[in-house]
């Protein structure tokens, strides 16, 4: 007897999963699904398609590539827990997938395959990285496209890596998927870390993906949940936040946005796609996920309502982003200083040392990064 068709297909999408740090690693190695996924284990297990972002390459040893920021990895013996929990697919296009180079990427793909997990968003070439994941569930043809903002992990010059954000190329990918799929779900890894709103550029780009034919646009990367909206009938979530990401050194005296997150449950039928958002606390007083209590949930969704109201108003969104940039000024200006170390950085933060950037130099840097033609050459010049 054939499988009975469902009127509604349930797809679960989560944010960043890192199995290589903190208290999570040992639980993952032991395959402790209940401790890791808590009261949401059943939601994942009973879904028709469960997807998580694998935030770190799966490799036991290896050498990290030269880059800025931390290099993450997860041990191979932690991977079986994802399939045991009910996950079917992991997205790989993110800013850490190439932290251990091609060896790390190929090891990740190999370990995923060995554990019955499909992958999307990264590969040994641009063609492999940009290839969507297709599946058919109860007669519905679903395409999953995975894109990341461009850092050290995205493919360049047809090298190994993740599928990078290029709205023109991404548009053609979405349109191509629409030829064969009833629904195209675009999963993006991008945004400003620890900032709870999208930039105006992100809002414009994600809405463009919806106009191109995406049925839903779901994002992660920022390590905090962001707001969401429905644009012309297309659900857009600007960040799900962390899913399983523990940092032993993080302050746990109070719940922060690092510990909060959302699971997106997509309810998909032939001509309709809706999203339910399930909030949780992750890796706070105990490792793994737990549901929010009623007071926590009320406070959380009040915050989401405030963020959503800002997102719906272009003027307020622009003003909030301007404030964020002003708060980030010292950090970014420090990146641009020709001479910098911890002492100089600390002194500049306290206005005890002058900036070495003249107004003339700032105008030059602005034009080099703002002008598309100059930026093309600048990126080529700085790329090893």
Jot down its keywords:
six-stranded mixed beta sheet, 384 residues, alpha/beta, Purple Acid Phosphatase, chain A, domain 2, globular, eight-stranded mixed beta sheet
Question: How does this model look, in words?
Answer:
This protein is of the alpha/beta class and 384 residues long. The chain has 2 domains: 9-316, Metallo-dependent phosphatases (Purple Acid Phosphatase, chain A, domain 2, 4-Layer Sandwich); 337-382, no CATH class. Helices cover 35% and strands 22% of the residues. The protein contains 14 helices and 16 strands. It has helices spanning 24-29, 33-37, 41-45, 80-85, 101-114, 126-129, 167-178, 200-212, 294-311, 314-327, 329-336, 342-349, 359-370, 372-382, and strands at 9-17, 49-54, 89-91, 118-120, 122-123, 133-137, 140-148, 161-162, 183-189, 216-220, 228-231, 234-237, 242-244, 260-269, 272-282, 289-291. Strands 1, 2, 3, 4, 13, 14, 15 and 16 form an 8-stranded mixed beta sheet that branches. Strands 6-7-9-10-12-11 form a 6-stranded mixed beta sheet. A hairpin with a 2-residue loop joins strand 6 and strand 7. Helix 7 (167-178) runs parallel beside helix 8 (200-212) and helix 13 crosses helix 14 (372-382). The longest helix has 18 residues, at 294-311. The protein is globular. The N and C termini lie far apart (58 Å). 41% of the residues are buried. The mean pLDDT is 93.
